[in-house]
């Protein structure tokens, strides 16, 4: 499990780099052929483990429910976030992973509601959820790279 958390933090570092080094206007643009933007993808990966790890374990979320509702699966970008929301998501990129790791190490995930993901990967326990989350975040990093390429194409 240590390796999963290491990979997750490395990916979050890459995502944070995209967040701080992408011109602000590009974070919120939706290129032709896409239905979301760079910002949405970053916020989405922050909220998804709340649902997969905490939610399916029957535990309280560790971030605001309004953020989860705004960026969960099935949502789409709705205008630009406030500066405060951007700062929160930026901080949550790292703090939420560290908290999940601490909670895992302290054995807090005692129960788990089985769940079938969209790509038909069944999650039977918190370890499955954590492993799937690494895969999920990789997909969204790929989406961000595709969005950046499309934004360059459209210049």
Task: Outline the structure in words.
- The protein is mostly helical.
- It is 65% helix and 3% strand.
- It has 6 helices and 2 strands; from the N terminus they run H-H-H-H-H-E-E-H.
- The chain has helices at 2-21, 24-28, 38-55, 65-71, 83-105, 126-153; strands spanning 115-116, 122-123.
- A two-stranded antiparallel ribbon has the order 1-2.
- Strand 1 (115-116) and strand 2 form a beta hairpin.
- Helix 1 packs antiparallel against helix 5, helix 1 (2-21) runs parallel beside helix 6 (126-153) and helix 3 packs antiparallel against helix 6.
- The longest helix is centred in the last third of the chain and has 28 residues, at 126-153.
- The chain is globular.
SSE pattern, N- to C-terminal:
HHHHHEEH
| Overall average residue pLDDT | 97
| Strand runs, count | 2
Main sheet strand line-up: 1-2
Oligomer: single chain
Report the radius of gyration as a whole number of Å.
15 Å
Structural class label:
mainly alpha
Our estimate of the beta-strand percent is: under 5%
Helix percentage range: 55-70%
So how many helices? 6
Shape descriptor: globular
What is the makeup of the main sheet?
A: 2 strands, antiparallel
